Records
---
Amino acid sequence: MLKVKYFVYLKYLIFFFILSVILNCFPAKKITPPKKITPENALKKANASEKNLKTFAGRLNIKVRKNKKGFSTNIELLHKKPDKFAIYFKSSLGVNLLKVVFRNDSLLYFRSDEGRFYSDSYDNFLKTKTWEWDIDLKTLLYFIVGKTGLTDPKISFLKSEKKYFVYILEVDEWIKKFWIDKKKFFLKKSYWIKKRGDESFLIHYEKYKRFGGFNYPKEIKINSSSGERVKIKFRKIKVNLDLEEKRFEIDIPSNLEN
C-alpha cells in the first residue's frame, strides 16, 4: 500500500516538474500598465489638429436665431494661416451672392448683383454697422476654423472635472476656458469672455469626424450672452490643400470704385 502511494506521489512530482520546465520555456507576456493621462499630455493631443492645420476649405450651413427670429445661409470658407480668409455667401441654388476677403485686419467684399464693393480696415468695417450679428465676423471665423488658442504657450491647466480637463487662457481681449475630453482628447466645450463689456460666448463642439487625417466637429453650437444662437453644420471639409493666393483676392470690374 505504501509503495502504491509512493509511486503516485512520484508520478505527480515528475508531472509538475515537467510542467514547470515547459512553462519556463514560454515566459509570460509582459503586460505594460496603461500610461496615466496627464493634463499636459491631453492638451498636447487635443491641440494637434490646430497646430498642424495650414489651410482649411469647407462648405457649411449657418443658422442664426435670436428673439424668435432667425435666418440660414450657406457659405464656402477658405482659410490660410496665419490670417487669410475668403468667404462666399451662396444662394439656395449655390450661386455666389457675396464674396468677402478678410486678411491681416483688412476687409474687402464685393456683391456682384448690386455692383457694390468695399475695401477698408476691419475696425472701420465694424463701424459701418453692415455686419448685423452680435458675434463679430473675426470671432465667428476663428470658431469655424478652430483658431481656439489651445496652442498658445500661455494656456494653463485649471482643474479636473468628471470627464474633462479644464484649461484657461488669458489673451489681449479675451479670457478663454476649454474643456477637453479625458478619453478621446477632443475639445468639447469652450467659454470666451470679453474683458471689456459683458460679451461672452459658450461654444459646444459635437459629432467629431475624421477629415483628411484631422479630427473635426461636424457641428458647432454658439450661445452668446445676448441671447443669439448660432449653429454651424459642416457639409464638407478639406485641410492642408495648396490654396493659391488669388483665392484670397477680389477681381473688381474696372468701372467700380471704392
---
Amino acid sequence: MTKDSIIAKIISDRATPRLDYSIKHKTENFTNNLFLTLFDAKS
C-alpha cells in the first residue's frame, strides 16, 4: 500500500461512517443486570 492509497482509504472511510452501537448496548445491559444482581433489595 502506498501513502496515497492509505490516505484515500481514510478519507473514504470518514465519508461513510459505520457506527455500531451493539457493544455499547450489550455493555449497558450487562452492567444493569450486574447492578441488580449485586444490590438486589430482596436478598
---
Amino acid sequence: MTAAETLQQTLIALGLQPALAEVTEYDAPMQLLTLLLHRDQLGREVLLTLRVYEPKAGVRDETLASAVIALKVELPYFAAEAEVMLETIRLLMLLNRTLPIGHYGFREHDGGIDFVYNLMCRDPVTLDAGLLDDVIATIGYYTRVHGDLIEQIVSGSVTCNDVIEELDRALEPNTGAS
C-alpha cells in the first residue's frame, strides 16, 4: 500500500471522503489526494489537494529522507483587474501575518488565490491522524473565515482599507457606556 493510499484510509477514518488521483509519469514520485474542504457562501466547492512526496530510498541525509505532504487549496476567487489585484495582494499579505500555519498566495497568470501548507514528516504512513485532522480543520477554518473578506475584495465592493477599518471597529473594546 502506498503512502497516499494509507493517508486516504486515515482520512476516511476521520470521516472525510478523499479521492486518490492516478499518478502519471510526469507526477511520479508524487501521489495526489483530493477532498472537499467546504463550500463557500455561493455554494462553490473549496477543494483541498494533498500531494504526497515520499522519501527516496537509501538516502541518509535526514532532510532528504523525510516525506512532504503539500496541502493546497485553490480558492474560487479571481482578481482580474489591476486595481483589484493590488488590493487582493495587500489583503493576502495582511491575512498571512495572522495565520498559525500556511500562507495565501496569488497566481499572477490568472488572478487566482491559493492557500498552501507543507507538512514534513519522517514517514507519511505513520503520520498521527490527530495532527492531520487538526491541520485540515485549521486550513478549513481560515479559508472559510477569510473567504468572505477575499470575495469582497476581488469583487471590488470594498478596499483593503475598508476591511482594516471594519476589523478595527470589531476589535474596539466595549466600555458599556451609552
---
Amino acid sequence: MASLYKHKITWVDIILGVLAISLFALCVYRAYNLSFTHDESSTYLHFRRSPILKFLTHSSMWGNANNHLLNTLLMQGSIDVFGSSDLSLRFPNIISFGFYMYAIVKLGKNLFKNPFVLLFFFIICCANPYAFDFFSLCRGYGLSMCFQMLAFSFVFDYLKNPSNKNLASILLSLFFMAFALFSTLLLIPVFLGALLSVLLLKNKLDRKHFFIATGFLLFCTIVFYVPVTALSGNGEFNFGEATFVESMQNFASYFFYNKPYLGNGISIVFLSLIIISGGLLIFKNISKRQIDLQISYEWFMVGSLSLLIIGLILSKLILGTLYPMERKTLLLFPYAYILLGLLLNVLEEVPYLKYSKFLICSFFVFHFFDAHQIEKTREWWYDYETKKIIQIIQKDTSNDVSLSVNWLFHPTASRYLELYNMNNVSLDKYTKSIADLERSDYFICIGSDYKKLKKDYNVHYENQSSIRLLKKKD
C-alpha cells in the first residue's frame, strides 16, 4: 500500500504538508505563549540540576511522580543550550510533535490505501485537543506518545522486514516511551507479546530476535526497578479508577475533552466503535489462511490491545493498582486512533458505509475547533494567566513586598519570580490551607478563596476563570 504514495507528490501529500506545518506552528505558538503550569514549574524548580543517573539508583530521590525522566534530561540539556525561557524548556516536546506526525504519516501510508482515510487518520491523531495540549508543555506525556506512535510504526516495518535494524527501532522506541512516562511500562511486554504471537502465527519467529527481546525485558526491569518500586511504595500508583468500566468511561470523556456531545452519549458511541473495530478485524481475518502484511498488523493491533486489557486487570487483581484515568489514559489514545482508521478501512468495502469517513472526519475537525483552547490547557487551566499576574505585580511596584498564593499557583509563581529576577517580592510558604498563610501585600487566589480574603483585600485583577490577584487594603 505504501507504493501508492511513493515516487510523486500527490494532492494528499500537499494537504498533509499544509496541515502538519499549521499544527506545528500552532504547537510552537502555544509553547511560547502559554504560562508555565504547576507540574512544569515543579519539575524545573526541583530537578533542573539533579543528576539523572541518581534517579535510577536511589529510591530516596522519588518523593513523587512529577519527575518524568526523559523530559527532565532533555529539559536540562535545553537549559544548557538555550537558557531557561518557557520556549526553551518546552523545546524537546515541540520537536517530539514533529516526530509524532512523521510516525503517523509513515504508518498511515502503510495501512491505508484510500487517501481520504489517510487524511482522517492524520487529523484524528494530530488534532485531538487533549493530546495536542501536551506537545506544547515541558512534561513527559507528549514525548511518550511520540515514541509509542513510533513503536507502532516500526512494528509494521518489522513485520514487513524482520531485520536487526527494525527490531532495534522498536525496542528503542519502547524504552524511551517508558523512560518518558513510567505509566506506559506495561506496554513493553504488551508490544513484544503481541509481536511474538503474530510471528508464531506466521511461523516466522527468529530465535535470535526472541532472545534479544527477552534480554531487553530484563534490561528494562533492572533500569526501572528502583524508581518504580520507590513510587509504588509512596502510593503514587494509587491514582486511578476502581473499575475497568469507569476507566473506559473516563478515557472516552477525556478523548473528547469532556465535551457533552449527544448529552455525553458520544462516549458510548466512541467506545462502541472501538469494540466494533476490533470485532470486525477478528471476523474478517480469522478464516484467512494467507496472512499478508496488512492482516499481520491487524492481528498485532487486536493482540496488543487484548494483552493490555488483560495486563491492566491482572495488575489490579495481583498488585492492587488502579485503572488509568485522566492523563494516564493517554496511553490508550494511539490504540483508538489506529483502530478507528482500520475501521474505516473495513467500511470502504461496504458500498454505502464507505462515505461515513467524511461524516466522522468532519466531526473530529469540528471537535478540534470547538474544544481546543489556544490560551490554556485542560489539565492546568488555573495557571493560564499566572505569568501575566506576576508581570502585573512587577509593573505595579518595585518596593519590597510579600506575596501569598493558593498552593496551586505556588510552583509557577516561584518560577516566574526567579525568571524575572523579582528579588523584591517575598513568596510565602507552600501550604494547601490558606488559613496558614500570612496576609501578604498581594494574594493570588481561586474563586472559593475570595470569600475568606475579601475583608482584607481589594481585587487588583480578575480573569474569566475567577482567578484573582488581590492587593491588601491600606
